[in-house]
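Design request, tokens follow.
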């Protein structure tokens, strides 16, 4: 499988800070299920790297440019949280400028 990291024009970006055991992500624009599937796989790839080393990790999300999404995608994001917990998620923070997001 190809590494699902995305280019600068992507609706999401992921970066890993190994010294802090943190995965940072940024989400932008309106998404469909295909975009979310790529994001989900990219997140799992990075989370599994911490899990293999037996390290807990934190997530920090920037959703300041991420509008409210269809309910179906929000349900999928909730599933990703459960996957993250199973892989060692310790803390998760999200920055947003909308209470609805």
């Amino acid at each position: 499988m190809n590494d699902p990291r995305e280019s600068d024009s992507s609706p999401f970006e992921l970066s890993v800070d190994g010294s802090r055991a943190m995965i940072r992500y940024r989400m932008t624009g309106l998404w469909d299920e295909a975009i979310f599937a790529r994001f989900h796989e990219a997140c799992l790839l990075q989370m599994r790297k911490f899990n293999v080393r037996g390290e807990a990790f934190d997530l920090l999300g920037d959703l300041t440019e991420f509008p409210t999404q269809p309910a179906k995608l929000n349900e999928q994001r909730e599933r990703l949280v459960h996957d993250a917990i199973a892989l060692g998620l310790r803390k998760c923070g999200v920055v947003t400028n909308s209470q609805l997001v």
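Comment from the thread starter after seeing the answer: thanks! DSSP finds two helices and four strands in the chain.
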